[in-house]
Each structure stands twice: as C-alpha cells, then as structure tokens.
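Exam prep: given the inputs below (a chain plus L-homoserine), describe the expected output before reading on.
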Amino acid sequence: MTAPRTIGIGILGFGTVGQGVWKHLHEKQADLESRLGVRLDLRKASVRDLKKKRAVRIAAAKLTKNPQEIVDDPKVHVVCELIGGTAKARELTLRALRLGKVVVSANKALLCEHGPEIFRAVRQHGGQFLFEASVAGGIPIIKAIREGLVANRFELIVGILNGTCNHILTRMGEDGLSFADALKEAQLLGYAEADPTLDVDGIDAFHKASILAWLAHGKWAPASRTLVEGIRKIGPADIDFARRFGLALKHLAVIRRDFKAGWMTVGVYPSLVPSRDILARVSGVNNGITLRGDVVGATTLTGRGAGGDATASAVIGDIVDAIAALTGAIPQALSPEALAARERNGRAIRMASIDEIVSPFYLRLSLLDKAGVSEGVYRIFSKHKVSIARVIQYEHPNQGRGTVTLSTYPVSERRMSAVLTELRRLKTVLEEPVVLRIFSPES
Ligand code: NDP
Ligand code: HSE
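Solution:
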C-alpha cells in the first residue's frame, strides 16, 4: 500500500479568521485526514507582529513575519489568504497563483476589486482560487449557487450580508444600545473589518453583493452603478417606526435581474422589511439570503455571517474541496475508504435508547368535570418527579367534562411514559391523552 500523500497548508494572517482556521484544522485534523485519505501538514502562519498575544496557541516556530516564505515553500500546496486589504493580499495571492498553488480566501474586497486579474492567473498557471468565506461567513452560499442551485436563473437575490450592520441594528433595536456602543461590541467580537467604515458605510456588503451578482449572472457590478448606503444615519426613531408598523429595519443587498429586458440592478441600503418576511427575523451577527430561482422557487439560507469560527468553517470547506481536486479524492466522506472510516468511528458510538431522550412535553387531557379531579392528575406528575411548567383549563359547561392543556419541564421519555400509564388508568381521564414533544435545541 502506498503512503498517503501529504498536503501542506499555509495561513497568511493569524487574526480573527486565521486563528479560527488554525484551531479547527488542528481539532479536526484526524477526521479530515481519514475522510480524504491524505496527511495534513499545517506548516506555518504569518503575522505582522510576532509579540502580539493570540487567543489560539501556536508554537513560536510555526509563526513567521514573512508571508512570502509561506507562499514560496514548496511543501505548501494550499495558501489561505486571511490578511485582508487589497495591497499585500493581492501581491501574495498572485504570487501563489503564479506558482500554480491553490489560494483559499475570505477577502471579498480583493475579489471584488481584482477578480478578473486573479482568475486570469488561475487560468494561466493551473492553480485554484476558492472564496466561500468571502460572502456570508459560515453560510455555504457560493457552493449553493454554483452547485446545488445550478439549474436556476435568479431573478432576485436579496440578503443581509454584513454581520456587523445586522448586529448593530439588532442591539440598537432590541437592547437600546447606541450605534457607537453596538459597533464597539461588534469589533470586540471580531465581526468588523479592520477598518469598520467598510461595514457601516455599506462597502463590505457591496463587495459581497458584487461577488454574488458575478457568480449568478457573470457580471461585476461597478460601484458607480450600484446604490450603496450604510447604516450611520439610522437612529432609534427609525427603528421604533419600523416596529410600530410591523416592519424590521435591515441592511439589505438586492440584486435584481430582468432576463427579458436584459438588465441587472444591484443595491445595498438600509430597508424596511415586512416582519412576516424570513429576513426580518435574521438577527444579530446572522446573515440571510433569499434566492428566487426559476426552477427551485424561493430558497433562504441563514446562519452566522461573521466571526472566526463560522468563517473558519467556510475556509476549511474550501481547503477540503481543494485537496479533493489536488488528489482526486472524492470529497466529503463519499469515497468507499472514507465511508469505511466513518463506519469504524460509528461503531464507537452508543445509540441511546428512546427512554433516555429528554424534552419538555405538552399534554391535552380530557377530564371529568368533578371536584378534586385535577389534584389526582397532578399527584401522578409529582409522584414521577415531572414538573409542570404551564397549565390552562377549559370548561365545557353542561358537558360534564373539561379540557386541561399543560406543558412540563424537560423530562425523559421513561418518566413521561410512567405518568401516561397511570393517567390512562384514571377513570376521570376520559380520552387518550394527546401528547406532543416541545422542541428545544438544548435537550
Ligand atoms: P484581522 O485583522 O483579525 O487579522 C489580519 C491578520 O493579518 C493579522 O494576523 C495581521 O497581523 C495580518 N496582517 C494584516 N495586514 C498585514 C500585512 N500588510 N502584511 C502581513 N500581515 C498582515 O482580520 P480578520 O481575520 O478579521 O479578516 C481577515 C480576512 O477575512 C479579511 O479579508 C476579512 O474581510 C475576511 N473576513 C473576516 C471575517 C470576520 O468575521 N472577521 C468574516 C469573513 C471574512 P497581526 O495579527 O500581527 O496584526
Ligand atoms: N465584517 C464582515 C461582516 C465580516 O461583519 O459581515 C464577514 O464578512
């Protein structure tokens, strides 16, 4: 048997995103290696300031001040450009591409401003440029447009594409924070760009909208023909007006295409969105994108749009795709070897019994209308240590019966089943109880 091939990965920039990628590549290394049938060699990461304190631990020998050293390292096959900006990032990206390497980038400004030059270098030198993380953080929107929704033509793409703006508008609206304090918070959480005017003035969302327009329609939207507005002018009175009239204030990117007339428009601006629209409920750092396709209809993707972890998820997805293309491995756990490895891992997992599943419950009971009946029912709950959270009683005059609906705190199926067994035995319970589980992400 031949030894698995080793793929070298270099990270340019060890800030919010770079550290997220390093951390999660380390944590998932064994799993990724078994899925792809390759060895991963996390070679080095580059920074400007070697003395800066970092949230993610990295051996001193793995850090360099010289990003070119990483790009030129013949053992680095995949270069992740996570520096930001368009000067140094462009220079390093083109250098890596001219060496025929794969570049994985989260840099929407770079792609938007230098896309044609970058893809020319890809074509000329046979490398790859992957950019899932450049739009909507952890949401795989690029893959969705390129692959899953490939059958569609999109007359409308509308989305919340800037996590910082959405965080600010949410915190101002829901918690009464000032614009300045909400922005400061977004910066501390690692959502904002190094220069946050890019976020609050709508430029970052414009970069992302332009990428989506190009991906969906093959045309870059020039800034001169794009309506670009930010959120600086938004105040509490605007948010209050929206709330009173069933609207939500969101910073939207809107890409419209008329296939018959042959035009496209792109705009990014604060907008009042009807609260029944799914995008009105996308809050905090989350992004959401609705694509109206001629085949699929309207599809919405939502998820975290910024932050080191969510963005690392998209970067690592691209790294895996790149490795699959480099080695001929079938991506994502679909090769027979990868499936076998998954099954080996699966054998170590104990499948819990249904009795152990815990959730809050809802019950509807039809009870005889007689004094003391409810007490008898509650005694059973108490005997099995099932705590009741809420109760509503409905009387049905002259029918001799009443309805009780109630919810419980989280409890195991075993205990709820014991309660039900006893309830069914009561003569005062007139019908089979209706039982529903209350979904809770925590249990
Ligand atoms: P950070 O500012 O946190 O990190 C940038 C890193 O690059 C730092 O390690 C910095 O070094 C290094 N660096 C900066 N400028 C230079 C330079 N001129 N030469 C060499 N190294 C340099 O940025 P983020 O991690 O937030 O963002 C990185 C990229 O990812 C950007 O393109 C951004 O738009 C994009 N992005 C960010 C997201 C986020 O949520 N933060 C989400 C999606 C995309 P040092 O640490 O020593 O200062
Ligand atoms: N600053 C960007 C945002 C990062 O807040 O959306 C993600 O691209």
